[in-house]
Amino acid sequence: MTLRLWQLAAAVIAGLAVSTAGTAGDLTLDGELTQGGFVIGRTLPGSTVTVTGRRVRVSEDGVFLLGFGRDAANTVDLTIRHADGRKTERELAVSKRKYKISRVDGLPESKVSPPPEDLRRIKEDNAKIANVRKLDTAETFFQSGFVWPVTGRLSGIYGSQRILNGKPRSPHNGIDVAAPKGTPVAAIANGRVALTHDGMFLTGKTVMIDHGHGLTSVYIHMNQITVKSGDVVSQGQQIGTIGMTGRATGPHLHWGVSLFKTHLDPALLVGSMPEGN
Q1: Residue 11, φ and ψ in degrees, nearest 5
Q2: What local confidence, expressed as pLDDT, does residue 94 receive?
Q3: Nearest by Cα to 205 from 177, 179, 240
Q4: What is the pLDDT of residues 123-163, one digit of tens each?
Q5: Can you spell out the DSSP letters for 53-79?
Q6: What is the mean pLDDT of residues 55-82?
Q7: Residue 8, SS3?
Q8: Which of 206, 183, 214 shows the shortest CA–CA distance to 64?
Q9: pTM score
Q10: CA 192, 196, 200 angle in degrees (round to 5)?
Q11: How much is the pLDDT for 102?
Q12: How do 215-222 and 48-51 pair as beta strands?
């Protein structure tokens, strides 16, 4: 099965398994209750929200975010305590997904485990990225909605994983879109640029945007960066161009979306690729 057909089949299966929106009294959930899914919740202003015992940020108008990782548990407990003392409790059923797993054997060890000097640089870069994913700002930039940062051929999908010489590698935590070098890359939603870097070891020229409430997006392997840290950007605004910096074998954009440490499936935020790609 081709990559595109595999993705469409997975999307159909996910769509059959989850509800895209639900309402119960003083609670509305809009999004995909599935592994990799992202949900915008709305409740009464002044409410306190906890997810499996962990308190989450709620905006002044009652908006909060939920995110489910690649291997999220089947159920999540949601508790809302309203300002008037009432309590709303929901057990959310999170549907499971199947992911593309590929195995490659017989590779040289240097292709599987980086040498110590490279590993040191990778750890330093990862620390910078992790610091952005700790941000918990009050802005609700994410309410702008989401768009594809670039259109083109899908060359990598969320959740896929390689097993090299019998050693499982980290799952693919975003989407790869192949396009010619120099193709404009846009912000997926309103936000504030939280990080720009001209030369990370693996990811090359890298941009991260804070969309509020712990939601961030990352754009890597770019040829040019056209924003700087602290810039407030609008949905669809150019932030750079397609490249192949860092460890990339061809010009493409890898982009990902995270709710704090939880990697989400970007395709579930933006829907199908626009026609003509």
Answers
A1: -65, -40
A2: 97
A3: 240
A4: 999 999 999 999 999 999 999 999 999 999 999 999 987 77
A5: TEEE---TTSEEEEE--TT--SEEEEE
A6: 96
A7: helix
A8: 214
A9: 0.87
A10: 145
A11: 78
A12: unpaired
